[in-house]
Each structure stands twice: as structure tokens, then as C-alpha cells.
Amino acid sequence: MSTEDIKSGLIENRLFQPSAEFTAKARIKPDDLKALQKQADEDYEGFWAEQARKYMDWHKPFTQILDDSNAPHFKWFADGEMNVSYNCIDRHLASKADKTAIIFEGEPGDVHHISYQQLHDDVCQFANALKAKGVTKGDRVVIYMPMVPEAVIAMQACARIGAIHSVVFGGFSADSLRDRINDARAVMLITADGGNRGGKIVALKEAADKALDKGCDTIENVIVLKRSGQDVHMQEGRDSWWHDAVAGQNKSCTPEWMNSEHPLFLLYTSGSTGKPKGIQHASAGYLLNAIVTNLWVFDLQDDDIFWCTADVGWITGHTYVAYGPLAAGGTIIMFEGAPVIPDAGRFWKMVEQHKVTIFYTAPTAIRALMKYGDSFPNSYDLSSLRLLGTVGEPINPEAWMWYHTVIGKEICPIVDTWWQTETGANVLTPIPGVTATKPGSCTLPLPGMAVDIVNEDGESITEPNKGGYLVITKPWPSMARTIWGDDNRYVETYFPKFGGKYYLAGDSARRDEDGYFWIMGRIDDVLNVSGHRLGTMEIESALVAHEAVVEAAVVGRPHELKGEAVVAFVICHGDRPVGEAADKMVKELRNWVGEQIGAIAKPDDIRFADGLPKTRSGKIMRRLLRTIAAGEEITSDTSTLENPAVVAQLQGKA
Ligand code: WTA
Questions:
Q1: pLDDT digits (tens, 9 = 90+) for 272-296
Q2: What is the DSSP string of 227-283?
Q3: pTM of structure
Q4: Per-residue DSSP letter, 405
Q5: Whose CA is nearest to atom 25 of ligand 1?
Q6: Which residue of 270, 403, 507 sits with most ligand 1 atoms within 8 Å of its CB, as the best mutation to test the pocket?
Q7: I want to staple 60 with a disulfide (CB 3.0 to 4.6 A). Which of 81, 82, 128, 280 is the partner?
Q8: Ligand 1 geometric centre to CA of 533 (Å)
Q9: Contact at 8 Å (CB) between 82 and 283?
Q10: DSSP 141
């Protein structure tokens, strides 16, 4: 066990019980949870079938539940037919047509409420516009948008007609966009002139043009939303404005009844190789876990205002913005901007103004806002809040306590939700009216989720606080179905060990004496920077694509705000850059990585040397690089290195 574990072991005694008041109103009370767990334990498939019948409307009811005949490719409810958009919108219209579905606030402060009826009409019109441009069932549509309601409308419209969307986060560069379009072989791109973010305009159409100019031959049409109002180039015959595309379109569009297993979306995420993987989700199973977690974990009720701050470019923005809360009939907030514009009180001002009751964000945002002190949150009325959540990375107990006291006023339960793009929805998390929480622990598996920690041989680790591989031992409805276009990689990445029996999450974890889970970190070459997954190989390939670079190695270093920071060790052609030449090269390479991947991947620190530390067999010693990056003392023997002199260079000592 590392010292880090011993440290957290000391504070895990703090237990926070949900208040009796919260529990009294909660959807899931202690007895309900027990009953759900009992049912899931006794009849796993029956349990999921019951939820699927209870919470979703089926066009053609399913008779098959789990099909595991082709493991590790699993199917759920495979002979059923439904439509995701119908389940998110149409079925609420009889009782909730006037209820607000989306409260939007733009970064400049414009506010706009959209009712379920309006959402229905907008989604139908846009779906008809897609059809008019020839998009049909199974076609891939890439969405590269700011955080505006039209992003959700576009996603829902795709779901309505069975087109498979792939949302690309607006912070990704033109090159990243091009790679994703090409990998998905998308026929349409939906974007905007620009979005407002951080007090600036993000020129999305300009980036899209750059991507398209570099060869995205499959794209036939581009639809452009007017948002920022700046001038953009519109290519005749290919590009059309959103408002023109929907003009005159019918406000009703019969949903296509889709097979449960029809792919709903692709979402690209980083892995251990240089190439991002297109995680493919199915329709019914995905939506089921999205609904039940919005109800069980976020306790979403009819009068709640749910604000999940994630961008729709990430899985959290899919499951807890675009799909789950709507399928549960809730009201969501969408915010276009950054949390510190115009100042660090923006989130709290919005909580006050819109009377937000449930607030879900990332530890990195909590840490960043905590840094500005208590006066910002204390100047607003946060009394509407009743439940808080976090996701994306382990939350340090200090940030947890600040969230609990300063934001939650010690009365809001905090749900620390562990899950992944691949799991589709929350997996390990407290149930807010039931589970006692511990700062820094994502507590326990949800009913129906079989989670374990195992050793190299796949044996369950029962000894408390001993780390191991986090695995999910039974298939679940919202699990990823494959990696788009690379099924082998799916099998090799997620089912490589233990005879292909268990889903390998890629995280290490331990369980404490109470069986609570504590996530320790990734076991692969994936960094978690501000809650965003970045592959070290991806950044390395970007660096070596620069003409000045011969070789590069990227590692993470603990960072107070971001969780992890990117550190790159770079070998250049010719002499090692020093002094001003080094400063210039650092700038150049940071910008280069920004162009190749996106601003989030820019290294915080770049160091040059004559070579990388390698063993005599030629293997880069990454562990040593991590020690150097963290500025820690090197305790391992470096004399066996092929080139020991480079160590001092990388440390900045020579
Ligand atoms: C990490 C985000 C600790 C973890 C939903 C996982 C977490 C990766 C938590 C998935 C949490 C997510 N505590 N670590 N509550 N939530 N992670 O695919 O390493 O963007 O494997 O999905 O984030 O990141 P992804």
C-alpha cells in the first residue's frame, strides 16, 4: 500500500448520514433499496426486465432479456422495438406539454425556456430537415456545437430517425474533428458559426471548414446554427443555415421504431493507443440505465431543476443532460459558458436565479471555484439546492468538505458517481436518501451492477484496502456494445483477462472495511486532466508529428486543480534547445498539440533532453519519468540506464 492510501485511510472514518428530511421525500428509501438489491441478487435478468417495462414505453414489447450467446458481445431486450426520442419527449406530452424541459442560459446572459411541447416541435422540425437532406437510419451525423439547446435538439432528432450521432466536444481542434468524421464516415456535420466561451467566441464553423478542407469526403451536408453572429464562409450546395433548413418543415415527425440494439450514438474517447476509440452505445439498454440513475441517484422529481454542468461533448452531457433527465420528465439547465465569466460567482448566481435543486459537476470545477473563497457562493441564495453530485475523477476530501459545507450547507447529500463513457451511466455511487457517505469514496455499486476488485488471476480481493483491478462481472443494459469499426480492440481492451469473463474498467481501486470503493487511478496510459480523459500516446503522436521532434514521452503529474497535468519529455533534431530557444520551442509545441488535438491536451510542462531514459533493452522508463515530472527524489537505481546523463537534463539540472 502506498503512503497515499494510508493517508486517505485516516480520514475515511468521517461518515455523513442523509438527513431524515431528505430521506422522507426521496424516491428510494432504505427499504426500497433493499428490495431492489434483493431482486437483482435473486433474479438478475428479471430485475432489469422489470425496470425496462416500468420506465420505458415500448412500441413492440421485448420477450428476450439478456442474450449472452456471443459473449463478450451482449444484447439486451433484443427483440423489442422503441424510440429513444419518443421516450424522452412524446410520452410526456399528455401530462407535461407545458412543463419546462430546458432552461438555457447563454454566456452573455440570454435566458430561454423551452417546454416539452416546444422541444417536441423543434426536434420534429429538425428531424424532418435531416430527412430532407437525405439522412436516413444508420447514417452517422457529427455534431460539433456550443452548449446550446440546439445541440440536444440535434441529438434527439437523430435518435428520432435512427441516425447515429457522434458529438465532438467544441473544444477539440479541426484535426480531431476531421479524424472523428472520417473514422465514423459521417454524412452530415451539424455545427454553429461560433459559441460563447470564456468571454471569447469559439469559431466552430471556421474549425469545421478547416477539417472539411483537409478531406472529409463522406460529408455531404453541413447545417450551421447562427449563434454568435460572426461572418462565416458558407459553401454553396453543401452548407445551409439551421433556420433555413427547418423553415417550412412539419412540426410532427413519426418516430422510427428502432430495434433495442440499434446504435444510438458513438462517442470518441481516449485509450491506450494514439487513436481515440468510437464507443458505440445501443438504444434501449442505454436509455434504461440513464433513466433509472436519474431517478435513483439524482432522485429526480417533478418539481426539480437539475443542472448537470457537463458539456454534451462528453458522456456525462449525454446521460445527464440530453437523454436521462428528459426521459424521466425532468427540467434541466443548459449553460453555454465558463464558470468564471464574468466572475467566479456565475454558477451560484444561476443556482439562485433558476432555483436549481440538483447540481452535478466535476471535482476540478469545485477545486477551481473553491480557490476563489467563500464570498462568491455566500453572496447568493443557494437554499433551493437539495442534492449535489460529482463525477470524472476522484474528489479530494478537502474539496468534498467545501462542497458539503459551503455549497450544500451541510444538508445536501453528495453523490460521488463513478462511471465511464463505456458504462453509459453511473455504476458506483451513493443512493442519496440511503447511503452514508465518506469524503472521497464513490461508496457502493447500484442495484443490478456487479462490481468487484480482483487480482492478476481474477480472484476477488476481500482483504480491506488492498488495491486491485476494478471489474464488472455481469453484463448490464447500458454497457458499450463495441468500438466503432474496431471490434477486436473492443474485446482486447475490455475483456483481455480472466478468460474474457469480466469487463475490465481500466481503473484500480480498493475496498475499505465497510466495503466502500475508493478509486485509486487508471491502470492504463490514460490521464485524467480536469476530468477529461487523455491518452498519453495520443499526445505523443501529436508531438512527434512536429517536424522538430524526434521522440516524445508523455506522463501525468499530480496537479492541485486539474487532478493531473500533462508533462512531455521531448527529444528534438539537432542540438537540445536551451534558454530562449527552449522557451520558443515550448510555445510552438504547446500550440501544435492544441491544433492537433485541442487546448485541453496542451502539455503544462515540456522538457528537452538528448535522449529519453531507457533500459538497455530500449524500453522507456515511464515510472522514472513520472518521478521526475512530480519533482520527487529518484530512489531507483539509474546507473543501469543506457544513457544516465539525460536524467539530470530532464530534471532541469543540466
Ligand atoms: C474516472 C466520465 C473517481 C475514472 C463519466 C474512469 C472517476 C474515467 C469518477 C472515465 C469518480 C469517473 N471517482 N474516478 N467518481 N468518475 N472517474 O469516460 O478513471 O470521461 O475510468 O467518463 O474517469 O472517464 P469518462
A1: 878 899 999 999 999 999 999 999 9
A2: SS-------TTTEEEHHHHHTT--S--PPPPEETTSEEEEEEE--SSSS-EEEEEES
A3: 0.94
A4: I
A5: 420
A6: 507
A7: 81
A8: 8
A9: yes
A10: E
